[in-house]
Each structure stands twice: as C-alpha cells, then as structure tokens.
Amino acid sequence: MKPGTILAVVGGIAIATGGAIWVANLDGATADSETTDGSGKELPEGPHPKAVTPDSVFDFGSMTVIPKESARVHEFVVRNEGDAPLVLENGGTSCSFCTRNDFENTTLDPGEEAKVPCAYFPDEEQEEFRKRFFLNTNDPLRPRIEFTVEGRVDDQFHIEPRSWEQGLVERDAEITVKGKIYSRVMETMDPPTFTYDMEDENILSVEAVPLDQETLDEFEAISGYEIRAQVRSGKSGGFTRRITMFVPNSDGKSEYAIGVTGRVTGPVTVQPLDGVEYYPKSDGLDFGTFDGAVGKTFEVGILFKGVEEPIALEVTSPEGVNVSTRKDERYVLPKRERHLVTFEFPAGTPPQARLETGQFLDVTVKTSHPEVEEIKLRLKFVVR
What number of other Cβ atoms are within 10 A of residue 199's Cβ? Predict the structure, then answer.
C-alpha cells in the first residue's frame, strides 16, 4: 500500500499512512490493548507478568452444615503466561466467619502455575451462598484476582410427609401410605430402620425401598428411599399408629417419629346436608347465622352400616328447636339404612349466640343398632 492511502473497513477502521497501520474497533478499544492498564495510560515497556486463571467460579452444589475442621476445599489454578516473574499475595476473603484462604504468598516464573485452595465451612443453612476469595498480583493488567465458590447449604435429610392424615376411613380398613426420605448432600444413604409396638396388631408392615433416578431428579436429591407402611384403622374412634424411624448419618443415627392418623367412621356416619358443617372430632353441627324472626330448618343424614334389622330412632327436642327423624326411603343398599334428622327453628326464635363450649345445644339420638346405643350431636349457631 502506498503512503497516503486510506483504507476504510465496515465494523472497524483501518488507516494506513506513511506505511504505519493502526486498527480501532467500534467500542473504541485498540487492538494493542495489552499496552495499557485499562485506564488508557501506556504501560512501561516489558517484560511483564501475565496472570491467567482457567476457571474463577466453582459450584459446590448442595452441602450440609459442617465444622471448620471439615471444610470443603476447591483449588483454583493461576498460571504465569507472561515473560516476567508473577508475584501472588493472599488478598483475604469476603467472609471471615465461614471461609478460609489458605494461599501462601509466592512468585511464579514464566510458565509456572500455582494452586489456590479456597475453603468453605458453612455454619447455618442457606438456600444459596456465594463467597469470594482474592489474590493481589504485580500483573499491571490484572492487579487483583477474584475467585468465587457457590452452592447451597441443606439439611442432611428431608422427610415428606412427617405424618399421614387419613381423615375418615372405614372400620378395620387396611391403609397403605407412602412417603419419602431423601438427601441432597449424602451421596449414599444406608436404609432407615423402623421400630414400633410389636404387640400393636394394627401396624402390619413398614419398609424402605430405594428411590428411582426419576424421583431423585424430581427432588434434586442424590440418595433416598420411599417409605411404605401398611396399617389397620381399627374398630372405632380416632386412631394414631406411631412408627419410629432411625436414619444413619455422619453423627451416628437420627431418630424421627412418624405416624398414620385418622378417624374410623364405624357403623354410623353423620352426613351434613346443605347449609350445615360437621366437625367429626367434636360431633359438632354448625348451622351458621340465621334470622330468628323468619325461622330456619336444617337437615342432617345419619348412615347406618351392618344393618340386620330395621333401625328405630328416638330423639328428644331441646328447648327452642323441634327435632324429628324419618327414614330416607330413597337410599336402598344391602345392610345399610339412612335416616334424616330435621332441626326446625320456628319463626320468632329469640336472638342468641351458641358459639362456645358450654353454650351449644346438645341433642341425643338413641338408636336400635346393636353397636351404637346413642349418637350425641352438638348444635352451634347464631340467631339474629
């Protein structure tokens, strides 16, 4: 190219004048970027060291709370790819409570490399962490090097659920429940063991089966088991089947109490109809709020099972409400009968609030069922 010739290039500019050529790109940085320290000032003539780090960020993944002496350590690498000795000095960390920079000051000749051990020892659970480690250098283009370790601090185990609430179930029903115990920090987990009252004939079996890979991936876990328990509900009333699970861990064994709970419907089930809420644990019927001047009528079904002979009911009305019963002829199933109980509050019922224990109206329904002598119902309501 002859002196005085000017050459323009799309995306950058190249100028040739008097045989000298310089190139600029669109962001304004010159191609000879290593001749400055980043501030635009010219660097003294070389030779210079050049600090190169193949990686500056490391992900520990999931880990658990650990003591200082058991710190997790990752070693970063620094290489001198310059043509002068590279001086490296420990620059500390971003957190003095949970990190440790074990690097010892050193000088690297051209072509040499050093390992930088960065230690992390979390003292509390953290959904995610990000800690930094620093080195100071005599590289004019990189006077400070920053390394980062990240990850999350998790429980050793997760148990889902801790208990199984079954709600209302049939009497002597065999119930199978399934749960999970898994870990995001333990690569291997020994099978949990179980203990329970061996004389409790209502606990049939408990076992732990390794989780498949798909399930582990779903919970971001690396080890775990499915817990399968089979219990029997029993004859009547509320029930709780308690099981103790022992899980081996780094400290020995962790003990967890799990349970299967529910309420047996038994030979009688109360069935609330429109406008009524039923609380089986207290046998409470909630009629809500209504206008006493107009009055209100509510209905509740009572289902009897194991019926060999027709059921006869007898009920006494408390003061202020008329209670009556009748068989539901539309309900036809073998060995079952349903009866409807009607609660009639007549027009002109005085204002009152029966919302607390001791204020409820109690209604007793006597039955001819061989297993159920009487049914107690507690009425909760507000009359405006």
Answer: 6
Separation between Cα atoms, residue 177 and residue 125, nearest integer Å: 30
> Longest C-alpha distance within the chain, in Å?
121
Question: Which of 273, 328, 331, 338 minimizes the C-alpha distance to 304?
Answer: 338
Task: Count CB-CB contacts under 10 A for residue 196.
Answer: 18
CB 56, CB 147: distance < 8 Å: yes
CATH superfamily for 158-264 is Immunoglobulins (2.60.40.10)
Distance CA 48, CA 383 (A): 92
Structure-token pair, residue 102: 């074990």
DSSP helix/strand/coil, 94: coil
Is-cis flag, bond preceding 47, omega within 30? Answer: yes
Q: What kind of fold does domain 268-383 have according to CATH?
A: Immunoglobulin-like (2.60.40)
pTM of the model: 0.48
- Sign of the dihedral defined by the CA atoms of residues 82, 84, 88, 89, in that order: negative
Q: How far apart are alpha carbons 1 and 129 in whole angstroms?
A: 58
Residue 34 has φ and ψ, to the nearest 5°, of: -75, 5
Distance CA 206, CA 345 (A): 52
Model pLDDT, residue 7:
39
| 51-153: CATH topology | Immunoglobulin-like (2.60.40)
N-term to C-term CA, the chain: 104
Asked whether the bond before 280 is cis by omega within 30 degrees of 0, the reply is: no
> Which stretches within the chain are classed as H helix?
213-218
- Cα–Cα distance measured from residue 13 to residue 29, given in angstroms and rounded to the nearest whole number: 12
Q: What is the mean pLDDT of residues 74-80?
A: 95
378/361 Cα distance (integer angstroms): 6
Top pLDDT among 254 and 222 is at 222
Strands (E), 18-125: 20-25, 51-52, 57-63, 72-80, 86-93, 99-101, 106-108, 113-120
Q: What is the pLDDT of residues 259-277, one digit of tens each?
A: 888 877 778 889 999 899 9
Q: What confidence category does residue 233 fall into, taking pLDDT thresholds of 50, 70 and 90?
A: confident
Q: Which of 364, 353, 379 is nearest to 278 (CA)?
A: 379
Amino acid code (one letter) for 297: T
Backbone angles phi, psi at 201, to 5 degrees: -70, -10
